[in-house]
Amino acid sequence: MSVPSANPADLDRQDPASEVSARAEAFRNWGRWGDDDVLGTLNFIDESKRLEAAALVRSGRVISLAQAFDTNGPQKGWRRRTNPVHTMTDTGTDAERGNQGFPHGIGGADDVIAMPLQCSTQWDGLGHIFDRGMAWNGRRAGDVVTSDGDLVTGIEHAASVIVSRGVLLDVGRHLRPETCELDDGHPITVADLEATAAAHGVTIGRGDIVLVRTGQYARTRRDGWNDYAGGPAPGLSLTTAGWLHSTEIAAIATDTWGFEVRPNEFDVPAFQPLHQVVIPNIGLTIGEMWNLDELAEACAQRDSWDFLLSAAPLPITGAVGSPINPVAIL
C-alpha cells in the first residue's frame, strides 16, 4: 500500500472519504499496545521520558497554558457547547449576616460550576471521535461510549500519565515574523512543522508533547472572539497525519478551537477529517484552545523551545474529554 502524500496539493478535494480512509489505513495503530489498550500514543511516555523532561527545568518558572473558564469565553452554543456558568452558593454577605448556621463566628464561601468539558482549554480523549462507527483500537463505537459515558477509554485513565517533554513549535512566529500570526484558513504542512523545528533548534520524537502556536488566540484577545469557536482558523493539514504517526509523539495541542485547518481542505462537505484519522486510528490525544502566547515569548527570549510539561486531565469517570490547566515548567 502506498503512503498517502504529505503535500496538500495532492489532495483530491472532491473526495474526503477516500483521503481519510487512505490515511486511516496507512497510519492505524490498532493492536500496537495490545487489545486492551486505553491510552494510545500516551504509551510513548515512560519514566525515562519524564526524567529527560525534568532535566529541562532551569529557572523553575511556571507558565499556565490555559485560557480562562468564564462566561466571557468563545462558545456560541454549537451542539450545546456553552461557556461556563459559575454560581456562588455561599458568599461573604451570607457570612456577614450570620445566616450560615456556623458557630463562633466562622463563615465561608462556596461555589459550583456548570460547563461542557470542552468549552475552554482541554484534551480530546480517545472516545471523542469515531471512524465509520469504530472507536480507538478497533472497538465498536457503541460498545465504547454509551449514555453511561466512555466505558473503555474514559479520560480518567490518563490522569497520571500526561507529564513529559513539551516542545513548542511557534509556526506563527516562524512563518509570519512581522505579526507572529497565521491567517485563518492557513493549512500547516509537514514542511512548515519541520522548518519551524529547525529554526527553533529542536528535534521531535517519541513521547514528546508538541504544542503548535498559530497566533489565532492572540488575535482573538486583540480583536474579540468573533468566530474563534468553529469558524475559519489556521491549523494542521490533513496531510500531516503521517508526520503525527511517524514521529511517535504522545500528544499534540494548538491555540485554536479545532486543531486542524478550517475550513477543511475540500470543495465538498467535510468536517474535521484529521480528527477522524488521528484519534480513533492513530490513538493520538489532542489538545485545543491552549494559551501559548506567554510561553512563546519566554521561549523566544531564552532561545529554548522545550520544557517540562504537566497537563493532567480531571479524572472524570467515563468522560471523552477534560478541561485542564496545563503548565510549562522552564
From TrEMBL:
One Pfam family hit: Cyclase
GO molecular function: arylformamidase activity
Listed GO biological process terms: L-tryptophan catabolic process to kynurenine
Domain of life: Bacteria
Protein name in the entry: Cyclase
